[in-house]
Each structure stands twice: as structure tokens, then as C-alpha cells.
Amino acid sequence: MSKRLKVGVIGAGGISRTHMPGWQASEHAEVVAASDIYEPGLQDWGKTFGVTRLTTDWRELLADPAIDIIDICTPNMLHADQVIAALEAGKHVICEKPLAPTPDEIRRMIAARDRAGKLLMTAQHFRFKGNSQALKKEIAAGALGEIYHARSLDAAAQRADPHTDVYQAGTERRRPLHRHRRAHPGPDAVDDGQPQAGGSDRRGRGAPGARCPASGPPGATRPSLRTST
Known about the structure:
By secondary structure, the chain is an alpha/beta fold. Helix content is 27%, strand content 19%. The protein has six helices and twelve strands. The chain has a six-stranded parallel beta sheet, sandwiched between helices. A three-stranded antiparallel beta sheet has the order 7-9-8, with no helix packed on it. Strands 11-10-12 form a three-stranded antiparallel beta sheet, with no helix packed on it. Helix 4 links the parallel strand 4 and strand 5 (92-95). Helix 4 (79-88) runs parallel beside helix 5. The chain starts with a strand and ends with a strand.
């Protein structure tokens, strides 16, 4: 790579602090600016990571021709507008997951990416782990047949919650990852033929009237989640 790419971070909250070690370790990029509406927190963030260019107006980062990449770490209801604006400003974008609360917003983001000819990536860091890549190879080889539903468990969970699905083997407690992270199916996800927005809170409960797969009380109907081809 001929130059070190310049990165601007929008949103200096907790999730941005998990992005920063990766940026700091990269030989190909460096964070040069950040924005957040909460100035005291932004100033503390800047001191922590040695970033001196700080602003409460995220659009200032988009207007800077020296910035190549925008890293969006804001709440997900803001993602679509910020991603689209960044792409239209000629920036590559990495956006914290989920990309957006609804499939239509994600489609708008993809269309903006195509128009701009830039890269748009969701921060799905688990795909780079060895076990994820090994599973992907098995799927690509056809060893697992047609995958129509997937469920992942977090073996690091330390407490059992009687109101959630919990699995215990010996002294190790496991529970579904969707209890810890927002569950938003992709833009083509359908459930019983209907597009799914996938909105949920941090405990994995769906929007009013909806349920995530494998959530709900014992015996509740648990529809499968299929991805259209």
C-alpha cells in the first residue's frame, strides 16, 4: 500500500473503544479525527487514544478530503443517514453492526455504495476468527447441506437467567448469543414468506408482535428464519 489511510470515527462511545485497538495495530491506517455530540466524553476519548482533532459535528469529517475512511460507531438508528452521507462524500465506510434497523434502510445504503464505487463493510469481526472461517469452508464444500437456520452459543456467559434459554454442561454455562447482541436479520431474510425487520432489544426480544428464533417461553412457537436465494 502506497499510503497510510486516514480514518475518522463518528461516535466516541463504548463500541468505538473496541474498534480503536484494531486501528492502532494496523500498519495501513490511522485514526486522525473523531466526532461525538457529547463533548466531555469526546475530549476524554481523544486523550485516551491520542487523537487531537475532535468535533461535535460529524459532517466536518466528511468534508475533509484527507480522510479516506469513516468508522461509524453511533446508535443503529443513525447508521443509514450517516453511511449514505459518508459514501456520497467519497469515503469508504465501516459501520458497526447492525447496519440498520430495517431492510429498506440497508438497501438504501447498498445503493449508495454502488453509486459511489466505495467500500461499505459491516463490523462483523467474528467472520475473521478461525472457527468461523473453518465453518464457512465446510458450508462451501456442501458438507452441511442447505443451511436454513443457525444458532450460536456464548460459552463465556457467567450467570444463568431463569427467564432466558440457558444450557448447562457440567460447570460451564452457555446461552444464546442473541441474548447479548441485537438480532437483525439481513435485508433478504424472510420468516414465513414475510420480510423481517429484525428489531430487538439487547435481551433478544423482538419488536412488538415479533419473536426472535429460539426466544420466548418454553413451548412457544419458534418460526424458522430462512434466507432467500
